[in-house]
Amino acid sequence: PSLTTNATWDKNYSEEIKSMTLDQYASSKYIQNNPLIRLLTSESHQASHDDDIPSLTLANDHLEQAKKLLETKCIVGLYRDSEGSLARFYRYFHWYDHGHTTPKSYVSGDARDEISKKRDLQHCRSDLSHDGDRWLSLASSPSSLSAAMDGTARGGIEKDSDLWRTLVKSNELDLQLYEYAESLYRLQGREIFRLGD
User: Fold this and answer.
1) pLDDT band at 12, cuts 50/70/90?
2) CA 64 to chain centre
3) Predicted confidence (pLDDT) per residue in 84-137, tens digit
4) What single string gives the DSSP state of each residue in the chain?
5) CA-to-CA distance for 109 and 177, rounded, in angstroms?
């Protein structure tokens, strides 16, 4: 399968990538290198498609800087626990007034407008909780995810294959940051939200 995309707004968009398979992309000059670490640490120089300049090499210092940013500036949510994550966000940001179903920010103003905003917020939450993000649907279905990981699903990647190793190598620090975010999610659950593991 190709990496068909119409994200023409993305600075990394390329017509050439549009028709590539994942294997072709992974061995091309277009492959991303730890994009999340680069975003969080402002080390954004990655060779662009037309550059002959090598990308800035990231180090463990960049990983530690990104971890510190997550720890001190973020309430972590996980897609695989979207309902629990949304509940944390609602609670932390006081989106509901004293546990009622009326968002605080919508308490004043025109009653019809309040009802409309409340309905929009509930609809958005429902869509995410029940339908999920269509681009991340593999993460919500253990059987689909497992099939993708063991290569039995269409477009799946066999663990420890050359493609798998290439993608892991190119995103090694991002993967470590994700593991840290998972542990931070559990820690915040205990320390901020007083939840059990």
Assistant:
1) confident
2) 19
3) 898 899 889 887 654 445 444 444 455 556 666 667 667 766 666 665 554 444
4) -B-----TTSTT--HHHHT-BHHHHHTSTT---SHHHHHHHT------TT--SPPPPP-HHHHHHHHHHHHHH-----GGGHHHHHHHHHHHTT-BSTTSSSBGGGSSS-HHHHHHHHHHHHHHHHIIIII--GGGHHHH-HHHHHHHHHT-STT---TTSHHHHHHHHHTHHHHHHHHHHHHHHHHHHHHTS----
5) 42
